[in-house]
Amino acid sequence: MSPDWSDLNVVLSREFIIPTNKDIGAKIQQENAHQRCTYLCGNSLGPLTKRSKALLQEELDVWGTRAVQGHFTHPYDREWMNIADTVTPLLAELVGASEKEVACMGTLTANLHLMMAAFYKPTPQRFKILCEGNAFPSDQYAFASQARLHGYDPNEAIIEMCPREGEFTLRESDIVDLIAKEGPSISMVIFSGVQYYTGQLFPMKAITTAAKAQGCVCGWDLAHAIGNVPMALHDWDVDFAVWCSYKYLNSGPGGIGGLFVHNKWENRMLPQYAGWWGHDPATRFAMPPRFSAIPGAQGFQQSNPSVLATVSLLGSLQIFKEVGMMGPLRNRSLRLTSELEMRLIKSRFYVPINEASAQCLLRGVVDSKERTAQQGQPGFTIITPRDPESRGSQLSLLLLPPNSDVMDRVFNALIAMGVVGDERRPDVIRLTPAALYNTLGDCERAASCLERAFEGLTKAGL
User: Given this model, what pLDDT does residue 366 score?
Assistant: First the structure.
């Protein structure tokens, strides 16, 4: 039976195992304890799928009955030596690439280091790395360590682009203008496809085009983009990209990563940190002393991938394929996120973004004793862009007053009522309706519980 895209009240896929209210420790009426919680945290960790659970059990059984022979003979035709081939075509479709441009391997930051080792080739004239300010910390650490590895001071080599004063997200025109201005000194432009804290979807095609016009290498961290928004990495002329799979791809905690390398580099670049799984599979088990790279992204593989991690990802990717991949998923996602946004904005505790910005600016001019009195009652704003085309599924709620305990108290109240989002210091709660398993009812319940959480703070006299 084909999924019903039009009805947001119906779960698109029943393949997902959502924790119950009791499972998450919600303090809720007994008759509702065994109902599924309102899980709006797929931006952090996607839920387990029944398909993945079954595939994992199959592989455990094969391990028990075939042992080492499972690498070459497999009752389900998933020989372990070729296990990545089961997911590569689906990953390629998600990111807009050919299969040769994609490798399922490693973890996000390890893959980022591999790509930067291959593509970051600084010269005295062109050595800078341009990224968004407040990028995910692991990315920041990688950028800084790569700059130091080449003998540069990260404070001089890294340009962190921050929003204008009083704003929370970057303007496309400002990014493009900065690339044009600093281009001759920039070796690499690397942004997140979707910013983890604000939920901003960066204009990937425009940024890539601007970077290429200045002779810069352009790469992307797609941790919050893959499985969330449609992409066309090959057509956009992206040089490389890396991602994890445990967020929107639902592969499980610490799931296997992936990378993209544009095929224009196929005959121009060899992996600098070679491993046997990147060697030509036709002679891999002959154990030759000399490395012969697989053409394309898969030549960057080093060790054989975890079979359990790969089939867990496969179970989720099969569901993506069954529902039509990113085109229809994006349409449903846009509707769900807009429905949640509309309900949040109707809250009496919602603060328009310009007023919230003024409160945040007070942090720099008012000492801590005066701040709470001047900033008013508890409330929230939404720092994710209002334009649906400039965001993915996620909405980032900035809790007010800034640097108070409001975020912690609201977050705990939501959990107690069975709503799972996640918190990001200092003041943000992220709520993400995922198209595959969330419904309009989840959006309505989350908004209602948020209202009750703030009402509880008001009654407590905060």
Answer: 42
Query: How confident is the model over 284-296, as pLDDT tens digits?
Result: 999 999 999 999 9
C-beta separation of 417 from 452 below 8 A: yes
Q: Which two tokens stand for residue 437?
A: 């398993």
If we measure between CA atoms, which residue out of 170, 175, 168, 172 comes closest to residue 189?
Answer: 175
Distance (Å, rounded) from C-alpha 426 to C-alpha 411? Answer: 12
Indicate if the pLDDT at residue 1 is higher than 80. Answer: no
Side-chain-side CA neighbours of 6 within 13 Å: the count stands at 0
Query: Is there a cis peptide before residue 401, judged by omega within 30 degrees of 0?
Result: yes
Count other Cβ atoms within 10 Å, centred on residue 272. Answer: 9
Structure token digits, residue 43? 């931006």
Query: Which DSSP state fits 191?
Result: E
Cα distance between residue 421 and residue 399, in whole Å: 14
Tokens of 412: 């705990």
367 pLDDT above the threshold of 50: no
Phi, psi of 194 (to 5 degrees): -125, 125
Residue 201 pairs with which residues in a beta bridge?
194
